[in-house]
Design brief:
6 strands, elongated, signal, 39% strand, Double Stranded RNA Binding Domain, 3 helices, alpha/beta
Length: 185
């Protein structure tokens, strides 16, 4: 019984650890993704959101570096605009989210010494909290700058890090998860 309980707890931890980043993709099924072997950035800087937490040149250069590294690993190289098979753009979006822990309950019973006093307590409660969720959207766009070939999105709980290495690691993980979906299968 104890081994079974430990196994169930271990599996729950494994599956909960995999749920940190949610990814999705949309694409043109008629597109021949095998011919997309070179790209250029559509713009030289990230779109301005008005939120200073994500509007920074540090975050822009880190995001571009992570995207370029992932695409290079897939054999897709960065080239000059004139030689690009497609253009690349990205955007971050922060949204306020609300989560609830569900309803919980408890019942307690107590008795004092010599059986003279006793009591029963019942408690219920729901925990509600808000948090920021960041979404990264990466678009592969045609040379006409308006035809969307592929869009990958990844969403996770937003965190601010005091250590730049942790911020870079988190961003690299998000970019990798999004681009792991490309090319679509």
């Amino acid at each position: 019984m104890k081994k079974r309980w430990l196994w169930m707890v271990a599996m729950a931890l494994v599956f909960s650890g995999c749920s940190g980043i949610r990814v999705n993709q949309d694409y043109d099924p008629a597109q021949q993704f095998g011919r997309l072997k070179s790209y250029a950035w559509l713009s030289e800087s990230q779109p301005v959101t008005g939120d200073p937490r994500i509007d920074s040149s540090l975050r822009d250069s880190r995001t571009r570096s992570a995207v370029e590294q992932q695409l290079r690993a897939k054999g897709i190289k960065k080239v000059d605009d004139a030689d690009a098979a497609f253009y690349l753009r990205y955007e971050f979006v922060l949204r306020k989210k609300i989560e609830s822990s569900g309803t919980g309950g408890s019942v307690g019973f107590g008795r004092a010494s010599h059986g003279r006093y006793s009591g029963v307590g019942i408690g219920t409660g729901t925990s509600v909290s808000d948090y920021d969720e960041e979404s990264l959207i990466i678009d592969f766009v045609g040379r006409d700058s308006s035809t969307l070939y592929w869009r990958g999105t990844g969403a996770q709980r937003y965190s601010e890090y005091k250590d730049p290495d942790k911020a870079i690691k988190s961003l690299n993980k998000l970019v990798k998860k999004v681009l792991d979906q490309f090319p679509p299968k």
